[in-house]
Amino acid sequence: MSQAIPTIVLGGTGYVAGELLRLIAGHPHFALAGVLSDSQPGERVAHAFPHLAGAYPGTAFASQAGIEQLVTGHARPAVFSAAPHGVSAALIDRILTRAEAAGTRPHVVDISADFRYSTAEAYAAVYRHAHGAPHRLREFTCAVPEHLRELATPHVAHPGCFATATLLASVPLLALGLTQGPLFIAGVTGSTGSGRKPVEGTHHPLRHSDLYSYNALVHRHIPEIAECARAASGVTAEFAFVPHSGPFARGIHVTVQAMLKAPAETAGVIGSLRDFYAHSPFVRVNETAPRVKDIVASNFAHLSAAANGRTVAVMCVADNLNKGAAGGAVQWMNRLFGLPETAGLTAPAPGWT
Ligand SMILES: NC(=O)c1ccc[n+]([C@@H]2O[C@H](COP(=O)([O-])OP(=O)(O)OC[C@H]3O[C@@H](n4cnc5c(N)ncnc54)[C@H](OP(=O)(O)O)[C@@H]3O)[C@@H](O)[C@H]2O)c1
Fold this sequence. Notes:
single chain; alpha/beta; Rossmann fold; Dihydrodipicolinate Reductase, domain 2; 2 domains; 6-stranded mixed β-sheet; 12 strands
């Protein structure tokens, strides 16, 4: 591909948008055309993200009108939304409506929860407000890239961070018919999972050097995980999910436990996982327990497993802002544009953060 693909980011000053801007700055085919800030149009990107000053020394955040102009001025732009759920759907709908009127054909990857459900009713039951663009739900597919080869829609809904790690660990167990009964999930996330705005209860000073569960068995991601797992594996499974706040800023660690259908040992399960992900460049299956530090700030996910004949445990680590949000979204956008899936995403984790 000779010409850079004009790329638009929504949700400008947020953590995920910052990670998207970082990845786009190093991408061989995407070039930033505009980044929307609802709260700071006209302000310099480097003001919100000083670590990106070298990549975007003079770039300023755009307004909604500026973004709509960009979408209509390019034949086939890439649009990433890192806006909050409840906001993203209406924002995307407006942009797609303007693009349709102008005859341009953007691809959208939405990182919010707004297009993760197939019906507006299912969405409203979880999020307690009406969906912002129900007529567009059928234009989106929700999956992690590793679990779907052929896309039948022009746009993608990223399943989210906890869901990415949980699905990477669970779907092979279900698809290969290794387990029976519910899947019991313990997930630990870093504080950037709660976004940029300090809120009582999720603010980093309360979370660092502490570890605690929250929303046990009632977290809003449970139905999303179950729906994605069913679509990816063909199996309807019960997920019993207990999220935890971990004492770090970035990364997710998930442990999935279930009863085996037939006796199996550790080596056999690890072999099955390796076969399942043999063609997935971002998933590594190791014999040693996966560690958050080995994947933080990268698009890689590490898995391992243990089995004792009756029970299996699969552990997965992934970065919440990268593989679990911006990196996974770029992986999808690469595929939507027919680029190598790995383009711009192969940088290894720094290791010491
Ligand atoms: N954090 C994670 O680990 C993670 C992982 C997976 C998925 N996600 C999802 O990704 C999205 C972004 O998450 P985040 O952590 O980056 O959140 P965040 O840090 O709170 O950022 C969200 C940004 O959205 C923009 N925004 C807020 N209200 C808006 C409105 N009414 N209209 C337009 N824009 C508005 C704001 O930027 P401006 O005012 O500059 O526009 C805000 O900084 C969310 O939907 C979240 O659920 C997050």
